[in-house]
């Protein structure tokens, strides 16, 4: 299936003003947003959103806002509440609002995970750990409701009870409870705290293990809204075939799929024998011209592949700027703030090939114009009067827009 | 924990005859069987059991019976019923009885599997495949009840719905139903057909995937009697640490564990890059002197490791004689019928270190003798009078034996 077939619509737009169709008039239509979530983490903008940004932050924000309509913000328990009872709520809420005010969909990541969790959990008995985990979920989801209504509720459950790199409170309770009761506990808490929220199960394990987990969770009657698939490709681009086969395996459950964490490098690849990516520690991991050309090509191929599958509704890139996780050159922007070819390549898709720029057309005798555009938000203007409208479904659709003067 | 601590007992045996304790008399105690199931496949003895054995078969049977007290017989659907409606019941029943008459515990393998399944299933719609799968289970379990009361009900569910080497009826229905409904269907059928039977879930996948599957199955309320773990080690012995860690992960569910399929080579190892062992096809795979020494060592280490874990109740070796699956030199006996060092080494454990040979002792004034023996079946004799007894529990136990003349 071609991407446009189910991601775009043939729109017949009837433009009116004061109840009268605007016949034979020049109007300008422009896309304002995509229905598809083109996301990226926004971890670097906490200072900026809290009034302590640098000039470099401002420039990076401009580049960020030029590409993305969705943001993932960090709620790692160990960072968010390093001291019990002193959560970083105010700063994160300001950050979330900064993005929300700019029309971005905000997601919190993650509410339960065994890595980067709070050390003080280990001072508690298991029963108490479970109780504060539930309370923590309810607290964050309540405090951020209306600003953040999308959450990675629990992360990497496949290995959660057998994670053995270091002791931590979450592995302890997951080992004791079992995976499915753990998922049930955190999803019940999340659903109760914010019934309107979109709740994700997220994992990096793309093997049959995640399938088995999902099937067990669904059989147990736990409602999952979205399946999150990570795709950190530090060891090389998956390619179209593997990507589509992976999506197909997880699309069988009839749930929307979000690619929640994607990385593609513009430097040398991590050796294939590394199993836990965190084990690869090198002093410097430079971006290279050849790497940047390869990355730009792979970014385009990967986004095209994801959009070609109807089940995929969102894609979050794991860091716009180099020097993030592992120091890997995985950004679309170099450490010095200059965009790589991948930035331009992706921009050419999101705001180019898949975007309707301001386009002037003449309405017919019944006030109609026709255009083809990606699902999303639009604006039509004529002589200083405007109307907003959305294109929600693919195929041939008819939409009405009643212009008003501002 | 030492093996004897929970696999053997300190027995105080009171011997009597005609209701009177046999005081101050010489009696001979001898072990007759192990409670632990030391199993092996018996695929090579179908002809012999059906009266068409060769002299070589007779010799192999003698070696086989010298080691093993449990047998696994083949019920691969494609071999058992290659033509719909003409199952190989009579020959397999004769084989099962041949082993049962010799006091061996007989297990059937497997009732549902996507590999070596019946090709004619592919001519049927999915609903019909599911129906005949259920009927097939009920037929075999009813026909063999009382002779075979232990079954690998379903094999390799982790990859069942995503198996893509070739089309087959079982993958089709598992993909449509999902893994857990598939397991429920076959276990319900098996339980109904023979409520006394011991029912196994069996897999080769020792990763978190099998854990996730098991947790989903148990959460769904499906009763599994025994977890089957395969351990074909064509690519090298796992070693004690990995073996114990694997058992620990699966022992968490509180179910007995059977090592259902074990292979250790006495020739060169399969290269590590082979993922599906069936892909390794070579014209000749010889046993070697160095390989045989290594195998004997590893066999002893592996059996000691399994017996050192209280959850493990059975171990089935995947072929006593070379030239079986993949032509690999995995047997304890060479293709020419001569035993390898591994045969003797294992015999020295099962019928040596872990065995009470006929042992003469003098009873005390109350007719008692004391000995330490592995859990299992025993016989005591005095002056041509005999009694059988079993040692069922570890620790200090008291047992009574009333001698009778034959």
From TrEMBL, chains A, B:
InterPro entries, alphabetized: GH (IPR017853), GH10 (IPR044846), GH10_dom (IPR001000)
SMART domains: Glyco_10
Keyword Signal: yes
Entry keyword annotation includes Signal: yes
Domain GH10 residues, every copy: 42-349
GO BP annotations listed: xylan catabolic process
EC number: 3.2.1.8
Keywords: Carbohydrate metabolism, Glycosidase, Hydrolase, Polysaccharide degradation, Signal, Xylan degradation
Organism domain of life: Bacteria
PROSITE patterns linked: GH10_2 (PS51760)
Molecular function as annotated in GO: endo-1,4-beta-xylanase activity
Coiled-coil regions listed in the entry: none
Record-linked PANTHER family: BETA-XYLANASE (PTHR31490:SF88), GLYCOSYL HYDROLASE (PTHR31490)
Name by which UniProt lists this protein: Beta-xylanase
Species of the source: Acrocarpospora phusangensis
Taxonomic placement: Bacteria, Bacillati, Actinomycetota, Actinomycetes, Streptosporangiales
């Amino acid at each position: 299936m071609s991407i446009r077939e189910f991601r775009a619509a043939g729109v017949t737009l009837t433009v009116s003003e004061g109840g009268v169709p605007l016949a034979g008039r020049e109007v300008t239509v422009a896309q304002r947003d995509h229905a598809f979530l083109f996301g990226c983490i926004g971890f670097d903008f906490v200072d900026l959103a809290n009034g302590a940004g640098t000039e470099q932050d401002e420039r990076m924000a401009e580049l960020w806002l030029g590409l993305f309509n969705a943001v993932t913000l960090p709620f790692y328990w160990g960072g968010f509440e390093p001291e019990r009872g002193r959560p970083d709520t105010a700063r994160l809420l300001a950050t979330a609002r900064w993005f929300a005010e700019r029309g971005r969909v905000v997601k919190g990541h993650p509410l339960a995970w065994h890595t980067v969790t709070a050390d003080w959990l280990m001072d508690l008995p298991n029963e108490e750990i479970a109780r504060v985990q539930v309370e923590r979920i309810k607290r964050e989801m309540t405090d951020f409701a209306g600003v953040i209504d999308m959450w990675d509720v629990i992360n990497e459950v496949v290995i959660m009870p057998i994670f053995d790199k270091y002791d931590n409170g979450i592995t302890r309770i997951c080992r004791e409870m079992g995976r499915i009761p753990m998922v049930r506990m955190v999803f019940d808490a999340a659903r109760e705290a914010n019934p309107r929220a979109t709740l994700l199960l997220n994992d990096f394990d793309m093997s049959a293990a995640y399938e088995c987990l999902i099937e067990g969770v669904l059989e147990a009657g736990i409602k999952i809204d979205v399946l999150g698939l990570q795709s950190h490709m530090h060891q090389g681009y998956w390619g179209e075939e593997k990507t589509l086969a992976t999506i197909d395996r997880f699309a069988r459950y009839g749930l929307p799929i979000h690619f929640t964490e994607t990385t593609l490098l513009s430097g040398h690849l991590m050796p294939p024998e590394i199993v836990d990516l965190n084990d690869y520690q090198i002093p410097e991991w430079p971006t290279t011209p050849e790497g940047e050309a390869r990355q730009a090509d792979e970014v385009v191929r990967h986004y095209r592949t994801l959009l070609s599958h109807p089940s995929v509704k969102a894609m979050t890139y794991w860091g716009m700027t180099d020097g993030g996780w592992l120091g890997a050159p995985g950004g679309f922007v170099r450490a010095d703030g200059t965009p790589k070819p991948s930035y331009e390549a992706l921009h050419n898709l999101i705001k180019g090939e898949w975007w309707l720029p301001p386009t002037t057309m003449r309405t017919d005798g019944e006030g109609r114009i026709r255009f083809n555009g990606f699902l999303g938000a639009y604006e039509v203007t004529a002589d200083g009067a405007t109307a907003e409208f959305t294109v929600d479904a693919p195929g041939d659709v008819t939409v009405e827009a009643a212009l008003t003067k501002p």
